[in-house]
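Backbones bend. We report:
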Amino acid sequence: RKEFVDLYVNYVLNESIRKPFEDFMQGFLRGCPGRKWKMFLPVELQTVLQGHTKCDWHLLEKSVTYGQYKSLDKTIRNFWTVFHKLPEEKKKMFLVFLSGSDRIPAYGLEHFNFRIVDPQVENPDELHLAANTCHHILFLPR
């Protein structure tokens, strides 16, 4: 029985996926040459390719800079109060809105800089929330 279980496990986890995995690996190595990736441990490589999946949202708040705002302005305090009450899924949706990705880059939140800027329009009630994903700028009307 042990031999059967060992052979079955080997088949399911190795043999049955060998061809699809080899095809994937060949395509991956064509775009990402293997020599350069060997310097990473598997966990590090996963972080480089996928980014961080868990976020310390208070660290994100500390790394923000403001344009035409101060951190104690009522609009900013209200923004962070609402933001921190959001469920994790909604916070990641905000991250997608701001940066185009729901993950923090490998260099971490402490280096993920984004700005909150007042678009300074005459009637802020007529302006929708907007973001510049390339530069990580959130245009937050008062």
Q: What stands out?
A: Residues 1-50 form one domain. Residues 18-31 form the longest helix (14 residues). Strands lie at 65-67, 115-117, 130-132, 137-139. The two ends are 70 Å apart (CA to CA).
